[in-house]
Amino acid sequence: GLLLRQRKYAAYYLVEGDLLKPFPRVSEALKLQKEADALTKAKMKVKRPAIKAGSALLKVDPLFSVKGGKIYVDKQRNAYNASTQFTDISTGINKYYNLQVIQTNTTFHFFTRWGRLGADDKVTNDYRQYSHGQSLKSAI
């Protein structure tokens, strides 16, 4: 323990860099934090281009049972509608998975649909719909 306080013994355990550099003053640290927060806020204010009306991105799945639902779009113009597809030519697998956050008046719903492309039966294609009330966080 006491030997590690001597440089010749502590050199093996030291990390590269200036560890003996004094901490900045609180006022300097707060100033740096404010600058970092300002940059973060500036990045958050950047909006995406507006989504055109009638876009496929804004279309609610036809199996969604509540009428008048719209895809939720946040302040940064992110539409909460996602689709994935998995295709393997060697085995003939062609699957899809759709996720949507849908808003009806003040209620948020999470809708998901999955299955195989080209199949219309209930065995290979299915969907689920979850209502989350006014809680957007639980729907996401």
UniProtKB/TrEMBL annotation:
Domain WGR: 68-140
Matching Pfam families: WGR (PF05406)
Species this chain originates from: Toxoplasma gondii TgCatPRC2
Identification of the protein by name: NAD(+) ADP-ribosyltransferase
InterPro entries in the record: ARTD/PARP, WGR_dom_sf, WGR_domain
Molecular-function annotations in GO: NAD+ poly-ADP-ribosyltransferase activity; NAD+-protein mono-ADP-ribosyltransferase activity
Keyword Glycosyltransferase: yes
UniProt-listed Enzyme Commission number(s): 2.4.2.30
PANTHER family: DNA LIGASE, POLY [ADP-RIBOSE] POLYMERASE 2
Family annotation (SUPFAM superfamilies): WGR domain-like (SSF142921)
Class in the EC hierarchy, top level: transferase
Catalysed reaction, written as an equation: NAD(+) + (ADP-D-ribosyl)n-acceptor = nicotinamide + (ADP-D-ribosyl)n+1-acceptor + H(+)
UniProt keyword terms in alphabetical order: Glycosyltransferase, NAD, Transferase
GO cellular component, one term: nucleolus
Gene Ontology annotations of biological process type: double-strand break repair; protein poly-ADP-ribosylation
